[in-house]
Amino acid sequence: MARPLRIIFPGAFYHITSRGNEQRVIFKSQRDREKFLSYLESATQRYDARIHAYCLMDNHYHLLIETPSGNLPQIMRHINGAYTTYFNVKHKRYGHLLQGRYKAILVDMDIYAKELSRYIHLNPVRAKIVQNLEHYQWSSYLEYIGRKKPQPWLVKDFILSYFGQKVKIAQQNYLKFVEAKVGQKVKSPFRKVIGSTILGDEDFVKMVKQNYLQSVEPDRNLPALRVLSEKPDIDDIIQAAESAFATQPRLARNIALFLCHRWSDKTLKSIGKHFGVGESAVSQASRRVARIIDKDKKLKRQIQNVKSQIFVSRV
After folding, report:
1. Are 2 and 226 in contact (CB under 8 A)?
2. Where in the chain is the domain with CATH 1.10.1750.10?
3. Max mean pLDDT range (56-70, 95-109, 236-250)
4. pLDDT at 314
5. 8 A C-beta contact, residue 146 and residue 156
6. CA angle, 314 as apex, 312 and 315 as ends, to 5°?
7. Which residues partner with 99 through β-bridges?
8. Fold of 12-206
9. Domain 231-313: which CATH class?
């Protein structure tokens, strides 16, 4: 089963969404919404989360989160887990409240802070819940424009600093910035997301790849990783395997076939054609090598060395 790619590091910013299972309502009352906000507050206290924007809809929510401690999974486990427990007890129900895994997009805030916060705050208008954003109290918008006492844990200064140095001026400019798009069709900033995971310019994506994806093991259940990772050529893999197992040509071939299956983005048919075998033979050979590696620690270390050689040669 495909899994989302989580890129975790200190100081990262994320746009988070989580939806009700089968699109069902996850906030039934004012008390539910207040309780959810209390879990956002406890996440800032216990896990050093920084909440820059939020919007609670009926069947989903949006958050803009910064993680100074690089611990997004712990933060989201607390928020979603605590709220699910509360909701199930409160409404006498069992099972999953939220649909699968939450969606987290790593964001280059230097470029997308303004656009993302506006997109989040415009949700109630886009959903036609209200025509006037000032009539919607379950987002951070009213706190941003000074019409509502801010939650003590909400971080507004970072985004408002783009709109002026003085608070009142920044609030007025932010109001104009958001209201300018009310009633208009706004292009989603997420159309620029790369690999369903990163929202940023070319330099930001390159930085993330170099610093946080080089050591991530290839995994066919992580489609986003396949999109973002630099794919080694089959010839590069074969050459590295033959070099590492020069005195064992049969083993070198099997290792090369296994690594092509695991690390390249080629189809079974393409790999098989390269090695002169059928698709099923590729799968079977790969499984055999995987079983051997599980039992042979020395071979596992040798293969890690092959991997290092391949990727170092591509830098």
Report:
1. no
2. 231-313
3. 56-70
4. 47
5. no
6. 70
7. none
8. Alpha-Beta Plaits (3.30.70)
9. mainly alpha
